[in-house]
Amino acid sequence: MHWPDNEDYSLQFMRVLGAAQEGSSTISECFLTASRIVPGDDESWYREWNAIADANKARGDLARAADNLTSARSNWLRASNYYRTSEIFLKLDDRRRTAVLEKMRACSDLVVMHQPLGGERVRIPCFEGGFVEAYFLRAPGSDGPAPVVVCVGGQGHFKDAHLHTLLRQAHARGLSLLLVDLPGQGASPRNKASVRYEVETAISCCVDYLIARGDVDERRIAIFGDGLGAAFASRAANLDDRFAVSVSDAGIWDMHERVSRMTWMSGKDGKDAIAAEIRRMGRHGGLGQVRCPTLVTFGERDWLDIVHAIEMCRVLRETGADVTLKVFSTDETAASHAQADNPTIGNEFVFDWIATRLGVSQSAGAS
User: Fold this and answer.
1) Where are the alpha helices (DSSP H) in the chain?
2) What is the DSSP string of 253-292?
3) pTM
4) Structure confidence by residue, pLDDT tens digits, 231-275
C-alpha cells in the first residue's frame, strides 16, 4: 500500500496506477501527484489529481490543434481518469463534484468521438421515455457484422471506467464494445421513474439497440460485468437468451447474496452452514439457471469468500452449466477485487476467453 496508514487512499491510488498499463495514466504522473498529497486530506487529494487532469486536458487540446490526434486521444484519456480520481473523496453535496464529473465526461467524449473508425455516444430508448447512455466503439478491421461485448458495472459506476481499461483489450481481438451507464449510474437519469425498473430490462434494451444497428453479429453478443456489476451481468444473461457468453468479474454476486440471506434468515452461521445452503439450493434449483457459457473470475485477495464461490461454481457445473472459474493468485498479481492491482492481466484473460468462446480469430483481430 502506498500509504500504509490509509487504506482508502492506497486502494484508489492502486486503481489509477494500474490503469497506466492501458494508457489511462502514467507512472511518473501518478507518483508525482501522490508526492503532493497529504494522506487523509481530501482537499489535497482533489486539488492534485484535478491539477494533473487539467494539464493532460490542455496537452490534448494542443495536440488536436496541431492535428496530432493520437497524442490528443492519449492525453484526453488520462485526463478523464484523473478527473474521476479527483472526485472520489468529495462529499456528495460538494458542488465541485458535478463540475469535475462533467470534465471527465467531456474528455471521454473526445476520446470516443476521435477514434480512428469513429466512436459514438448513444442514448438507447428504454421504458416510458427514459434512456440508457452508452458509448459504442466499433471493432477495427471489420467489414461485416462484428461480435460485441456489453460492459456494465455496479452502483456508483461510470462507463468511463471501462473506457479507461477495456478499449485496447477489446479492439486488439476484433471485438466491438458497448459501454453502458445503467439507470441511476453516470449521467443516466436518476429520477424515480427510471430507477424503479430492473436493470435487466435496461440491458435487454441495449441488446435490442445492438441488433437494430446492423453492424453487430447478433449471434455473438457477450456481456461483461465487474465488481457489483457482475450480478447485473449474470442475471441479464440468465433472463435474455440472446447473450452468447457472459463474464462475472469478481463473482456471481446475486447467487452469493441469496445464499447469505437464506443462512441469516435460518439463524445459522459459519462456513459450514453457507456451504450446506449452496448444495441445498443447487439440488432444488435455487441457484437459478446459467443459460450460456459463463466465466467467473476472482482475485485471491478479493473480499468475497473464494471458498464458497468455488463451491457455488462446482454445484452449478453439476447441474450441467458451462461455468469456468479463474482465481488470480497473489503470486501472479491481479489478486485484488476486480483485479484492481493489475487490470491488464485480468482483462487479458477475460477477453481471450470471450474471443475464444465467440470463435473470433485473434490473428484476424490483430490485422
Assistant:
1) 7-18, 27-35, 42-65, 69-87, 95-113, 159-171, 192-195, 199-213, 229-239, 253-265, 271-283, 306-318, 343-357, 362-366
2) HHHHHHHHHHHHHTT--SHHHHHHHHHHHHHTTTT----S
3) 0.86
4) 888 888 888 999 999 998 766 656 655 555 555 556 665 556 656
Question: Could you tell me the three cell numbers for 8?
Answer: 482508502
| Cα(308)–Cα(338) distance, integer angstroms | 17
Distance CA 225, CA 229 (A): 5
> Is 364 exposed, middle or buried (CB count within 10 Å of its CB: 0-12, 13-18, 19+)?
exposed
Q: What is the grid cell recorded at 130?
A: 427514459
Q: Alpha carbon of 23 to those of 61, 163, 226: distances in Å?
A: 17, 11, 20
Name the CA radius of gyration of the chain, rounded. 21
- Cα distances from 1 to residues 11, 14, 49, 173, 203, in angstroms, run 7, 8, 18, 33, 36
The domains of the chain, with CATH numbers, are 1-114 (1.20.1440.110), 116-367 (3.40.50.1820)
